[in-house]
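Box S2. Input/output pair 1.
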Amino acid sequence: MANEAVTEKDSGIYRVARVLATVLFGVLMPVRYEGKENLAGREGPMVIISNHIHALDPLVLAYPVKSQCVFLGKKELGKNAFFRRILTSMHCILVDRGATDMEAMRACMKALKMKKVLVIFPEGTRHHEGQMEQIENGTSLLVLRGKAPLIPVYLDRPLKFFRVCHARVGDPIAYEDLLGKGINVETCEELNQRMRETYRRMILEAKK
């Protein structure tokens, strides 16, 4: 059940992962955060979005955040019962990408109501080129319904041993004006377009 991932307390596995992240992202696979205050200085509820280029990206995004993070992942990751239990302990909501997954949607809304941080990859899978051009509508729907700050993060390269990866944290993406138009296909697409434009700017700035 998707709701099993949304709990009040961190699991032991989640706490261990955060400790390991200190060594991993500080020394072995170094990550340098720019604009970190947009994450570290905020409490939940909040929605963090990012491009997805490495399996450990969720930990990269959660590491500087004080509040408990809840992750969205594809349902296929939980095919193995043992691995599914680990993912649930890590507060991962498994989503059926090929359908409207109402159970996962309810779990996400529950997390935001509990003032947690949702970590989402809007493209739904890993992309190494043309980041954040193919955005799933579910992300915009969640943001508009949850009315939580939307924080974009751009990862400039995949994690690699002893090579620095930069995590560029942008300012919140404004969408309050869209709420007055109602939550529908058109407003979701408008927010999708704002995400695309934000990442186009972030990618250009990263290349300077």
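Box S3. Input/output pair 2.
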Amino acid sequence: MIAVTGASGQLGRFVIQFLLEKIPASEIIAAVRNPEKAKDLAGLGVQVRQADYNQPETLTNAFKGAEKLLLISSSEVGSRTPQHLAVIAAAKQAGVKVIAYTSLLKADTSPLALASEHLETEQALKASGVPFVLLRNGWYTENYTASIPAALAHNALIGGAGDGKIASAAREDYAAAAATVLLSPIKSGTIYELAGDDVYTLAEFANEIAKQSGKTVSYVNLSQDEFTATLERAGLPKAFAALLADSDIGASKGGLFDNSHQLSRLIGRPTKPYSAVIAATLQS
């Protein structure tokens, strides 16, 4: 039995899709905050159980009977550590034998502020006594394709990554890796540094948007403060704007680059090119 937290989210749904190709639906637990949003999964025969990171009492029951658990990191930056600690404690109480956790690329050396909560969770896993594996995911290409509509509207892709090399992959690729690990024998303490085969700068990313759209799109590099302020003016909450700007500055320092190709080796195929993710976004 394999349980997946955050199963109604984008990554979680992809993971479950891949698992369904290999094992019966009855052997999959979709642990979700709101079961109403996972009726489609229940319709496929997946066991849908309530598991709210902020309600620890829901977690142990959600994980009962699971041999392996995929802990997909919470989206609530700033609250992640206590939420993840609650999941780990509940998994241990429920008798889960292995926890796989979606961490951040090179979390122990990353210049990104995002890394701190991931590192705290990794340390908690090591201290828990429960066998674990770390899926240190790099950037989702979709994090940047989300900016395409604004880039086309203003003929500019803005950012703060400078000439930093970015090795992102599609969300689907990271999900395939997670499913592969869950379905394989796991050696506790294994760390996967996962990133895409493609490497690009944001200037190259902007050029690809321009090439495919037929419109002028230039990359405009901003300082961290300028980028934060611009994102705030676009309507993003202050904390989230600051986080995105910090991540781009981290990218300028190499924080989103990795050329080990562990991800493509793990999933047995090349990762999806960023040009293909851009194409899919433009067609949607």
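Caption for Box S3: The two ends are 36 Å apart (CA to CA). The chain has a mean pLDDT of 96.
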